[in-house]
Design goal:
By secondary structure, the protein is an alpha/beta fold. The chain has two domains: about 170 residues, Rossmann fold, CATH 3.40.50.1980; about 120 residues, Nitrogenase molybdenum iron protein domain (Rossmann fold, 3-Layer(aba) Sandwich), CATH 3.40.50. The chain contains ten helices and ten strands. Strands 2-1-3-4 form a four-stranded parallel β-sheet, with helices on both faces. Helix 9 links the parallel strand 9 and strand 10. It is globular, with a radius of gyration of 19 Å. The two termini are about 35 Å apart.
Length: about 290
């Protein structure tokens, strides 16, 4: 079953967010991001049509839905949203759909989110354990939609895969010496990763938990000082955001600093090795281990 679900995930991700796959059960789930879409597919399997709003490589913070996608949201059996402000440009659309009767499930607030700034960090998918719990949450909601299918067994099988992934990540990160476990990120997105795997986030290029912020020249100068003082070897940028500012910061540092594009807000293209949530988590761990080890 897991192999079948994985094949379905790869097939769906080769298409744009608006594309559909026909099913016989008449159920449709809309997921906001590629990450949530992969999570949902591993729970619902081939019995449900899964549609993803934000396409591969796009930033979920500023993505705006098309009129067709708005219609899909309103017709869906379930809409699965990350929440905690991640889908900033979709909030009004989602609230309007909910007022009109759409079944909207926000998963991040249910996963013991960690504080960041004046709110909570939405980047829960970088913690395999929290995503295992998210799978169970989706399964419980799907049982309310249609109790004829054993969604919980599929969620449990996926949770086992995620636990194995967590252990693999721990093994990969053993290559990183304790004194280099300090991270500079593009924006405040690595809090869960740092907390679980024993790292410390010492700075960000864009202040706050959103990519829509704009750093001042004084903030960038301060970051350069932190990088030099801490001996940071790499700035962890993102595939969903141009790394021009991060590269400019790296160029100002007196020692060599690599800019590494992690998969944070989106899965990778098919064949990238990061085209599933599990693949993305492992790919990020490998890149971090190479950059800091």
């Amino acid at each position: 079953m897991i192999l079948i679900i994985g094949a379905m995930s790869l097939l769906v991700l080769t298409a744009c967010g608006d594309d559909e796959i026909a099913t016989d059960h008449g159920l449709t789930v809309v997921a906001t991001t590629t990450v949530i879409g992969d999570l949902v597919r591993n729970v619902v399997g081939p019995d449900v049509t899964v549609e993803v709003l934000v396409p591969i490589g796009a930033d979920p913070h500023d993505y705006q839905a098309s009129s067709r996608q708005v219609a899909q949201i309103n017709k869906a059996s379930l809409v699965v949203v990350n929440g905690l402000g991640l889908e900033e440009a979709l909030i009004d659309v989602l609230h309007a759909a909910e007022r009109d009767g759409a079944n909207v499930l926000e998963i991040a607030p249910l996963l013991e989110p960690i504080p960041v700034g004046s709110g909570f960090d939405p980047h829960v998918w970088l913690d395999p354990g929290r995503m295992a719990e998210a799978a169970r949450v989706v399964a419980e909601e799907m049982a309310r939609v249609d109790a004829s299918i054993d969604w919980s067994s599929r969620a449990a099988a996926y949770a086992i895969e995620l636990d194995i992934t967590h252990r693999e990540i721990e093994s990969i990160l053993q290559a990183v010496p304790q004194d280099t476990k300090k991270l500079v990120a593009n924006h405040d997105s690595l809090g869960y990763f740092a907390a679980i795997y024993g790292f410390e986030v010492v700075g960000t290029v864009i202040p706050g938990g959103s990519t829509l912020g704009s750093p001042s020249s004084s903030e960038l100068a301060k970051l350069v000082g932190v990088i030099e003082e801490e001996g940071i070897r790499a700035i962890l940028a993102e595939t969903t955001e141009a790394s021009v500012v991060a590269a400019s910061v790296a160029a100002e540092v007196s020692h060599q600093v690599e800019v590494v594009d992690l998969y944070t807000g989106s899965l990778g293209e098919p064949g990238s090795g990061a085209d599933t949530l599990i693949g993305m988590l492992l790919a990020n761990a490998e890149m971090i281990a190479r950059a800091l080890g």
